[in-house]
Amino acid sequence: MSTPVTEEQVVEVLKTCYDPEIPVNIYELGLIYEVKISPSNEVFIKMTLTTPHCPAAASLPFEVESKVRSIPGVTDAKVDVVWEPMWNPSMMSEAAKLELGIL
């Protein structure tokens, strides 16, 4: 039996994914709405993008799935891109707001 994958491991990997137009990782930007891990180490991620017209709409969810699948023990990764609630800058972490000079 494999070691359970933790949400912390998934978040660490998510922090290596960046929106190509904003120099902050997608986790700190508030684009990740939910991370669920099944008992069999399948990872389900509910995320959004800054806008439906985001240039990364095709590539970013694939990058997230690919990087999460690379975590030792993960059996599969699925990303569901949702538009409700719509993303807005208030969803960013304090660190992201500081980095972008929004505070």
Keywords:
3-stranded mixed β-sheet, GMP Synthetase, Chain A, domain 3, 103 residues
How are the SSEs placed, and which strands pair?
Elements: H1 7-14, H2 26-29, E1 32-37, E2 42-47, H3 60-69, E3 76-81, H4 94-99
Parallel strand pairs: 2-3
Antiparallel strand pairs: 1-2
N- to C-terminal distance: 46 Å
The counted number of beta strands is: 3
Helix count, DSSP H or I runs of 4 or more residues:
4
User: Which geometry do the CA atoms define?
Assistant: globular
CATH architecture tag: 2-Layer Sandwich
Could you give me the name of the CATH homologous superfamily? Answer: Fe-S cluster assembly (FSCA)
Instruction: Estimate what percentage of residues fall within beta strands.
Output: 15-25%
What gyration radius follows from the Cα positions, in whole Å? Answer: 14 Å
| Structure class | alpha+beta
Q: Which runs of at least 5 residues are low in confidence (pLDDT < 50)?
A: none
Main β-sheet description: 3 strands, mixed
Task: Determine the mean pLDDT.
Answer: 93
Widest β-sheet, arrangement of strands: 1-2-3
Domains, number: 1
Q: Assign the CATH topology.
A: GMP Synthetase, Chain A, domain 3
Tell me the helix content: 25-40%
Q: What order do the SSEs take from the amino end to the carboxyl end, as H and E? A: HHEEHEH
Name of the top-level CATH class? Alpha Beta
Assembly annotation: single chain
